[in-house]
Design a protein that fits this description.
about 325 residues, alpha/beta, TIM Barrel, 8-stranded parallel beta barrel, two-stranded antiparallel sheet, NAD(P)_OxRdtase_dom_sf, Aldo/keto reductase, NADP_OxRdtase_dom
């Protein structure tokens, strides 16, 4: 497994990270045993970065990771945790809280669920419009001094917020969606991060499975985020799958799968970018790791961007109400 430096202030991590969200119901039911086996397979393949959120399954995801890591050396995995989203017992989304008191409370519960003494990277999942980012980052910085957190990250915020946060404490990375279908960060967010020495952990590199090469139009479980995603709706999904078929021709010429080409494209966009692979099964994980063997020339990159042009995706990456609250979309 190759490694990349996660920003000037962060740790060295595996070139691919494992995003564990889908193991806790966000994409419909998941198999617990297979999820744990997939985490183990990732660690054995040399993947060191595990990404989660304390609100994935209302704590389920953290407990799952804690179970998977039990009995293993703590330094075998770097754990990245997002916090802040508030959920009700029925799973509904009821707000956001990034006050200093909430930061420290959320952290205490995450440490307990994960069964660890510290978290490697701790980050607010979104910007709380009611709380200055300086207060949120300042509270995490207190936890860094106390030894409960190693590094501070951000998620889905724009250039101004990134600069304000970095003025309070070194930021190791920004976690944000980046793929062939979601290239908005290229305008101002990515240049800002590079100017400040902040890495990128890219989620949604397969656009939630849409450009995996395996997706087929089908009825989605009501608990599956994609049942509400604009890109998966009738009228949009057909257009997006046509882009996938165009990409498939490129993949076949390279002797790779569609997913591997999509991941390799993100990898080739900079050594400061670490794709998060949302595999829930060992076979999908193995396919994703195979992207590390795909070498894309400048001609390959140009061809890929011709068949899937910037801005070609039909539909936004989130429903309109969520898009309106994303600080990153104000860039």
């Amino acid at each position: 497994m190759q490694h990349r430096q996660l920003g000037a202030a962060g740790p060295r991590v595996s070139t691919l990270g494992l995003g564990c969200m889908g193991m806790s119901g966000m994409y419909g039911p998941a198999d617990r045993a297979e999820s744990i086996a997939t985490i183990h397979a990732a660690l054995e393949a040399g993947i060191t970065l595990l990404d989660t959120g304390d609100f994935y399954g209302m704590g389920h995801n953290e407990m799952l990771i804690g179970e998977a890591l039990r009995g293993r050396s703590r330094d075998q995995a770097l754990i990245s945790v997002k916090f802040g989203a508030m959920r009700s017992p029925d799973g509904g989304w009821i707000g956001y809280d990034a006050r200093p008191e909430a930061v420290k409370t959320f952290l205490a519960y995450s440490l307990q669920r994960l069964g660890v003494d510290y978290i490697d990277i701790y980050r607010p999942a979104r910007l709380d419009p009611q709380v200055p980012i300086e207060e949120t980052v300042g509270a995490i910085a207190d936890m860094v001094k106390a030894g409960y957190v190693r590094s501070i990250g951000l998620s889905e915020v724009g250039p101004e917020t990134i600069r304000r946060a970095a003025a309070i404490h070194p930021i190791c990375d920004l976690q944000i969606e980046y793929s062939l279908l979601s290239r908005g960060i290229e305008e101002s967010i990515l240049p800002t991060c590079r100017e400040l020495g902040i890495g990128i952990t890219a989620y949604g590199v397969l656009s939630r499975g849409l450009i995996s090469g395996h997706w087929q139009k089908t009825a989605l479980h009501t608990g599956d985020f994609r049942s509400r995603s604009p890109r998966f709706q009738d009228g949009n999904v057909e257009k997006n799958l046509a882009l996938v078929e165009a990409l498939r021709s490129v993949a076949e010429a390279k002797g790779a799968s569609v997913a591997q080409i999509a991941i390799a494209w993100v990898l080739a966009k900079g050594d400061d970018i670490v794709p998060l692979i949302g595999a829930r099964r060992r076979d999908r994980l193995a396919e994703a790791i195979g992207a590390l063997d795909v070498r894309l020339t400048s001609e390959d990159m140009a061809l890929i961007e011709r068949v899937v042009p910037k801005g070609a995706a039909a539909g936004d990456r989130y429903p309109a109400p969520q898009m309106a609250h994303l600080d990153s979309e104000r860039a």
